[in-house]
Amino acid sequence: MDEKTLIAKRVALELADGNLVNLGIGLPTLVARYIPAGRHVFFQSENGIIGMSGPIAGAANPDLTDAGGNPISALPGAASFDSAMSFGLIRGGHLDITVLGGLQVDEEGRLANWMVPGKMVPGMGGAMDLVSGAKRVIVAMQHVAKGESKIVKRCALPLTSVRRVDLVVTDLAVIEPTDKGLLLKETAPGVTVEQVMAATACELIVPASVPEMAL
Amino acid sequence: MKKLISLADAVALIPDGAVLMVGGFMGVGTPPNLIDELVNQGKRGLTVIANDTALPGVGIGKLIAAKAVARVIASHIGLNPETQRQMIAGETEVELVPQGTLAERVRAAGFGLGGVLTPTGVGTVVEEGKRTVEVDGKTFLLEKPLKADFALINAKRADYYGNLEYALTARNFNPLMAMAAETVIVEAEDIVPVGVIPPDAVATPNVLVDYIVAKERRHG
After folding, report:
1. Contact predicate B45/B70, CB 8 Å
2. How far is B87 from chain A (nearest CA, A)?
3. Averaged pLDDT for residues B137-162
4. Which of A96, A177, A200, B54 is least enclosed by beta carbons within 10 angstroms?
5. What residues of A are in contact with residue B107 (Cβ under 8 Å)?
6. What's the pLDDT score for residue B122?
7. Inter-chain contact B176–A84, Cβ cutoff 8 Å?
């Protein structure tokens, strides 16, 4: 199993039956493939739909895409709406879970994921509203990029929100930001606690026993 | 009440330097012929308020490539490298606004509000230069209304009064923008007789619409 699949499978376990969920562009979209059997999850796309399918090929409806512009279909029971309603759902506390990619998460559980000054300025899109408003924020990202840990003492990159995220799932570990610091909850299969600590650029709270991800 | 207008005449109403709201999300829900005609007529110095600048060669991406735009107010430009290039080169000014805040700023203008209080952006670079307001112990940013000279709207169906119906995710910012501009120009996939669109399906009431771009019949 590659790293992205591992992350997506672990995140998928967090989605409960009946949840309204928004998946960010990129790695988070993979999560939809691994929803445990028997759970019905409603996916929102912020361009204005609840009840979207994954990307489709073939005869596409030109009036119906996901937030990345990929053709999708509307599942039976879907609802479509304008951008104010879409972000009312997000900001108003009606969205159970958002899963977003990350550039950095810091010791206080704050996320930076929308720009690298001078290099990459795509814009925040819906990310700031999603992190501010969703009931649960799950960050799905690689633990280390280009040799540097993405879990740091303090985000050097511009923050997406000052809100503490609820869970960070990486290819090495599951980490829960708490008011006391980052709590190591699980390690990836075959990964030791020491390896996670070595790949993390800040302190982790390590319980006496840390289970392996049950995938 | 003559709202039908030719494409060329509709776009000729828009002067260089005008502030435009353009519906759409990655080009979906953006009026294609109005965009092409803005490029044809060689408009310059436009301010474009929109969710994004789409992709190169798509929707607002065509205006960017044609150097018609001096200023962009959008939530996302990440899928159009040309917008980013123009921004870094100082050719085009870009103001990035969180998507939900953009929707609410447009809505506030159209709904006659003095602004909105949102938690989005508190403690981030978005807060810079803005007032914060505390309500019941929670901090919000005061975000001001956004208005435009023209709104360019893409509807699924318009009737000859100008009542509009939208389709699926092509709706997005269109109904909000149709309330927030001095002059509202609509391009619809179909124009239907009055009475065809059921009242419950009308998302933009006709009184908001100034012009409907007429269908052109072509031969040869």
Report:
1. yes
2. 10
3. 98
4. A96
5. 84
6. 98
7. yes
Segment 1-40 of chain A within 8 Å of chain B by CB: none
pLDDT of B75 reads 98
What pLDDT is attached to residue A116?
A: 92
The residues of A assigned a catalytic role are 46
Beta bridge partners of B212: B4, B186
Nearest to A82 among B27, B156, B175 (CB): B175
Cβ contacts (< 8 Å) between B172 and chain A: which residues?
A: 47-48, 82-83, 86
Contact B107 A133 (CB under 8 A): no
State the pairing for strand pair B148-159/B138-143: unpaired
What is the structure's pLDDT at A121? 86
| Residue A168: count of CB within 10 angstroms of its CB | 24
Q: How many CB pairs under 8 A join A and B?
A: 152
Average pLDDT, chain B: 97
What is the DSSP secondary-structure string of chain A? --HHHHHHHHHHTTPPTT-EEEE-SSGGGGGGGGPPTT---EEEETTTEEEE-S---SS--TT-B-TTS-B--EEEEEEE--HHHHHHHHHTT---EEEE--SEEETT--EE-S-BTTTB----TTHHHHHHH-SEEEEE--SEETTEESEESS--SPPS-SSPPSEEE-SSEEEEEETTEEEEEEE-TT--HHHHHHT-BS--B--S--PBP--
Does A91 contact chain B (CB < 8 Å)? yes
Indicate the helix (H) or strand (E) that contains B25. Answer: none
Assign domain B4-113+146-213 to its CATH superfamily. Answer: Glutaconate Coenzyme A-transferase (3.40.1080.10)
CA torsion through residues A56, A61, A62, A65, sign: negative
The vertex-A90 CA angle with A67 and A61, nearest 5°, equals 30
Return the SS3 of B52. strand
Query: What is the rounded distance in angstroms from the CA atom of residue B65 to the CA atom of residue A4?
Result: 35
Q: What is the pLDDT of residue B1?
A: 59
Global confidence as pTM: 0.96
Q: Are strands A111-112 and A104-106 parallel, antiparallel or unpaired?
A: antiparallel
Token pair recorded at residue A201 = 């650029």
